[in-house]
Description:
Two copies of one chain form a homodimer. By secondary structure, the first copy, chain A, is of the alpha+beta class. Chain A has ten helices and twelve strands. The model of chain A is unreliable at 330-334 (pLDDT under 50). Chain A has a seven-stranded mixed sheet, with helices on both faces. A five-stranded mixed sheet of chain A has the order 1-2-5-3-4. Chain A has helices spanning 6-19, 33-45, 87-103, 126-140, 188-197, 204-211, 217-225, 238-249, 268-273, 290-297; strands at 57-62, 65-75, 108-118, 144-151, 156-165, 179-183, 230-233, 252-256, 280-284, 301-308, 313-318, 321-323. At the A-B interface, helix 2, strand 1, strand 2, strand 3 and helix 4 of A face helix 2, strand 1, strand 2, strand 3 and helix 4 of B.
Amino acid sequence: MSGQDPIRRRRAIEQRAMRETEHTAHTALGSGAEFDAIRRILERWGPRAKRIGDDAAIVTTLGDRALVVSTDSSIENVHFRADWLTPVEIGYRATTAALSDLAAMGAKPLGLLAALAVPEEWRSRLEQITDGIGDAAELAGAPILGGDMSRSGELGLTITVLGAARAALFRTSARPGDQVYVTGRLGGPFAALRAFNSGESPAREHRKRFARPVARIAESIWLNEHGATAAIDISDGFAADIRHLAVASRVGITIQLDRLPCVDGVSPLDAAASGEEYELIVTAPAALDTSEFASRFGLELTEVGDVAHGKDEVRFMLGDEQVPGPPGYSHFTK
Amino acid sequence: MSGQDPIRRRRAIEQRAMRETEHTAHTALGSGAEFDAIRRILERWGPRAKRIGDDAAIVTTLGDRALVVSTDSSIENVHFRADWLTPVEIGYRATTAALSDLAAMGAKPLGLLAALAVPEEWRSRLEQITDGIGDAAELAGAPILGGDMSRSGELGLTITVLGAARAALFRTSARPGDQVYVTGRLGGPFAALRAFNSGESPAREHRKRFARPVARIAESIWLNEHGATAAIDISDGFAADIRHLAVASRVGITIQLDRLPCVDGVSPLDAAASGEEYELIVTAPAALDTSEFASRFGLELTEVGDVAHGKDEVRFMLGDEQVPGPPGYSHFTK
């Protein structure tokens, strides 16, 4: 397999998944209470559920492209706090979080739907929230195609995104011998939350990374076309998401934490724990032109580790020493 | 236009909508606070939003089919009450409500995504809720392809459904000269809610229509293939939804309320106000074989009115007398 063209290989995975009628085609999930709950549900659903567990679902094929779709909820006091973000930022960020799942699949957006649950006390800020949704949609080139609006007791935005990929990037398709790359600099959301939680104002650049993340759509399509083998976006934190990728691909991964690109004032361990970054982790044979990527997108692409045989395991190194990885974020254990 | 094959005509509408780059391609919306809010949002979104306002959105074409998608939220104490429905029924009903939007487009399901917002006190009933989602998905032949799970303060289920239609049924495409048909018998949910609100137990058949509605998927595909020109599903109530269809198609419609098929113990006016029926209203030239439909699906198809020139107006008749139509349901005015 290792000599095969990565696009052809991922096409084959796609086509096998589409033919697959057994529910065993689900992507392997990591550990934790949230994933235990999902595993129990999948067991009960049996063959009624198919191909669950990647950043987005492959629905069908569109000629030579795969149609991918993902849905993502942002709920007040779970995913955001009204005193930390403006209403425009709340709409922008919820939409970007969903669009980032298309980036994680190497897919070009086709459009999005916004289901808004709006309490009475938020009604006066509704248009600002939808302005933020519009900003994120426009930035990603995703037309808004529909949605739903309901009364509710708490503000909730569920954004569904649709996209098309010539050959989708899965989290299951990393290969021994690949290198691990990450886009951008990590730790901004961590630093912003640290400041908010201490009652301080975050530094301007940290707040911006927290409030105005960018879904790496164009970057992902470029990476997909330039040999990436697998990808995941960083929502639970680099450390947690690289574990998801290792488990899904059934490989061993070694990460050099001191290579992790960090924003000012954040240590590599804290940067690796920082969630809701919406940067991408990709694997690829050691052939990605990081300089061309940087000059094209004005964004760093950094090689931070490598993939080996071994199973479902990530080793985090600081220099020559192996260190325990930082914990991930789970909505069900916090 | 009136002599043209209805499928070719709707294909042309589809293709014009897909070429359309102006936001003026939105479907005309009815009156009321909810729609005023949506109109204001659409104005602010401008060209960032496209083709909003039908039961489901056309995303792209799949060879000779259109890909349609819709998202629908069900929120505790807005769309359901925990003392009126079992957890299985809550999951089933939320999923059926979303699938019904595919039926309203004449589309065959490709799959669905379930975004679940789950408060701590609901965790023990989560698997029953997802059993209900699985039941509805299986009944409609829609594999579950993905989703999202979050903590929250109130139970919310946002179900996104994807489908394909050879030529989608819009609410904009009813024509003067068409007849108006409705599937099934109306009023069950009205009667169930009337009983619940009086502290009584609803009759068994009324409760079943309320708790276990059926998305009319196979029926819709048959109607689409047998000459239907336009369709909408009954979620806001027959009277409100026929008004939506008249406004969207820019036609006048006359409804003979005494022809409305009603469940036992419910008057035509109350049946016309009954929401969350998930039966279909379709328009078609006076050529639908209602007997064949009834014997094929074990479900009535009843002709209840007709479409004429005129604009955005529905006349409700009881015998020879015009009566005021019953009000519709709006989450934002109740």
